[in-house]
Amino acid sequence: MGPRWKGKGSKAKALADPMSKIVLQLHSCLIQSNSEGLLCGCSVLLSVEAQQADLLSRSCFGETMVTVEKDKQWFELSMEEAFYLCYALKCLKIVEDQCPKSDDQIWQYMKSRSALFPYLYKAYSHLRMKNWVVMSGITYGADFVAYRHHPELVHSEYAVIVSSEEEGDADKRLRVWSDIHCATRLCGGVAKTLLVLDISRNGHSVDSPSCLESYTVKERTITRWNPEQCREDHTIVESENGAKAGI
Amino acid sequence: MEEVDSANILGEPDMNDVDDQEEEVYYASVPASKLQPRAVVSMARWNNEMGIAEVVVQKGTFSKTTGIVRSGKLYYSIEEVLFLVEIGALLLLDESDTGLSLEDIYVKMSGGKYKFCWEEFRAYRQLKSLGYIVGRHGIPWSMKGAKSNCESIPSQGFPESDKVLNLESEEIRSVIGLFNEMQINKVRPVFNVYLPNSKFRKSSPGDPSFVLCFTRGYPPSKVELEALEGQCGSIPLKFCNVEQGRVSFFSFDTVELPVLP
């Protein structure tokens, strides 16, 4: 299942405006404005001006919040998004109670909020570093969905499930056949491919974000094979159901 | 090709339909068999000890893609026998040359004596009905065409003689032994599957389109996947899940998402 662009010209538009460039602009723009995000539960709140707001929207970081304030636009970032801007791109400071937090402190905080955060973050940053747009996949029962470019131009291609066998009991998804049926059936219905990102810590700990570099990511798709549709040649024909496509 | 013909009359309901179509379920009565009796019927004699059947009368074109050839003789495995008997293309004789009914054969298979696995047979039947060519993984079609590629056992050309046949059946049994060991690890490669191909030759089968694997109870783990991938090299793997009477096939393929601009 290749990319499904939304309407004519979307592909050309995406090609002319690569995501890496938009993120680069966001990077310098956030640095210039010395942006600070406020740690708030499992979210990081960020208030920005028009230019940053435009870049955050175009690069799909966070969700805009509706407030009465006219001069400021508030964004709510997920933990992965915030930590990516903070730790990987180094263009966002995260504060709690007006007190700036170190990378290690934020890492500990986010880990305490979600035991799987190290794996989810590794998966998120892995795809982001390849310039894929990564957004929440919760409505598809997945961790993330991955887009080739902005969701306005293209449908998401993958529903991403993050898996780590090292985590044992904390990660029990896709361990029984009915889960595999369920996930592939759902993905097929919304024209996505199920992508499992297997994170290995390779013996390294989860104590500090500096361990992330030693983690490895293996990409695997799980697809259903239909013997009735694949008799002719070697290409695996996926069942397509464009009518029910997602965002 | 007869295999293709049989696809139309023996097609299983579409298991993989993404639409929410209910399968046809019959309330009043089961419809009568649509299979036509065949004019040409092969005959094979069951070998209790080896758990395979030696073909004694060969008719039709099934032998092009069914059975293994050893020393000029054609042998059918249990699932091959059962499939051919079910579609009326084979008459199975017992060791005293008495014809066995389908019921006799089901009784034989259900005994657990012959390492027969109903779930594997379900997958075999579905693929064969659609014209796929299905052989046992690790058991060469013929000793001539035996290749070590993706086979569990190293195989070499054997001179053809009756003595060697016995040796070879030893080999078959040792291969089955290998399968049993793998069953402990839950995951086992079972069938080599080739796409429908009228030019298929047992003496040069080439690489299968994929190796069909079965698991015991659970989807394959990462470790199991990697071990099997290492074993089968470049040949793709698929995994079969037979549950609640449904046969499903899944690929767990390693991919590499491109780095986008």
Automatic annotation (TrEMBL), chain A:
GO terms for molecular function: nucleic acid binding; tRNA-intron lyase activity. Coiled coil: none annotated. Pfam families: tRNA_int_endo (PF01974), tRNA_int_endo_N (PF02778). One of its GO terms (cellular component) is cytoplasm. Residues 120-203 form the tRNA intron endonuclease catalytic domain. GO terms for biological process: tRNA-type intron splice site recognition and cleavage. Its EC number is 4.6.1.16. It catalyses: pretRNA = a 3'-half-tRNA molecule with a 5'-OH end + a 5'-half-tRNA molecule with a 2',3'-cyclic phosphate end + an intron with a 2',3'-cyclic phosphate and a 5'-hydroxyl terminus. Belongs to the tRNA-intron endonuclease family. This is tRNA-intron lyase. It comes from Rubus argutus (Southern blackberry).
UniProtKB/TrEMBL annotation, chain B:
One of its GO terms (cellular component) is tRNA-intron endonuclease complex. Belongs to the SEN54 family. Keywords: tRNA processing. It holds the Pfam family tRNA_int_end_N2. The keyword tRNA processing applies. This is tRNA-splicing endonuclease subunit Sen54 N-terminal domain-containing protein. InterPro entries: tRNA_splic_suSen54, tRNA_splic_suSen54_N. The lineage of its organism: Eukaryota, Viridiplantae, Streptophyta, Embryophyta, Tracheophyta. One of its GO terms (biological process) is tRNA-type intron splice site recognition and cleavage. Residues 40-92 form the tRNA-splicing endonuclease subunit Sen54 N-terminal domain.
